[in-house]
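In this supplementary section we document a worked example of the pipeline. Step one takes a protein sequence of length 298 as its only input; no multiple sequence alignment statistics are reported here. Step two produces a three-dimensional model, which step three serialises into structure tokens for compact storage. The input and output of this example are shown verbatim.
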Amino acid sequence: MKRFLTAEDLSGAPPDGFKVSRIFLRPDQLVSIDLSNSYKFAKFRHSSGRDERAGVRVMLVKELNLSNNSCLTESELYQLSQLDQDCAFPFLLNVALAQTAISDAFIERLSSRCPNVESIDLTQCANVTDSALVMLAARCTRIHSINVSDCALVSNLGVDFIIERLGANLVMLDVSNSGVRMTQDLCEKITERCFNLRNLNLGIVTDWRFIDAIAVRCKKLKVLDVSRCQIPPKELNDIVAKLPNLKNLNISFNFKINEKNIMQLLNAFPGLQIAAFGFDFADSVLTSNPAVSNRLCF
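The serialised model returned by step three reads:
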């Protein structure tokens, strides 16, 4: 029995127009809906001028992906997700809304009808503000993963609220390229409350000592992105040494270090994979130690 639905399942006409009737599926038939990049399936204009929009009416869906639908309006996304109906997704756990036109109003409806959401991706949601994060933290108390990268209207205020309410839950937090700025206060909140973090990306951090303080407390970190953070080589080595579970480290565009420092780091920590964009490694360095260079991405 098929347990998932993709945008292709909604097709049935040539690419220049997709006439899609509403699809009704029994609750026990579907656990995942992936309608990412599905803007071309969402609407078909009839000769009368009416729009017939696609939707899926289910009860037990655990995953919903509407990402990369920037061409759709928020109203159309409501209908694709069925959040315009009285009956939504009470068992929804994972939500991906990256690169969509949703606003705080969408998050308000989502958080009120889907209280068990555990993971939400809001990457490049330009209309989402701190108010959305406040609603998620207050209503969806099981959230453990949240990505607000490239959300310019999200600031320290919203992230502070997430950390205050959900800090102990969080295993993944990405606030890179948003309106969030690393401060002493935010650093202290992370170190005090987010001790279960496995994946962290804070964007540009102007003071490497904040990263060091987080490394002292967040021992479970497996993925750490400190790209564009200017951390000297010795201090970077000390930070990595404090994270026994670290598997992936992004130190791209750190101009305090050089290629030799990176190779030394790889040799010192044999289980570590490093992303180091912005550096130029000589072929002789890479070929002399292929086992080490295989753990390097640049």
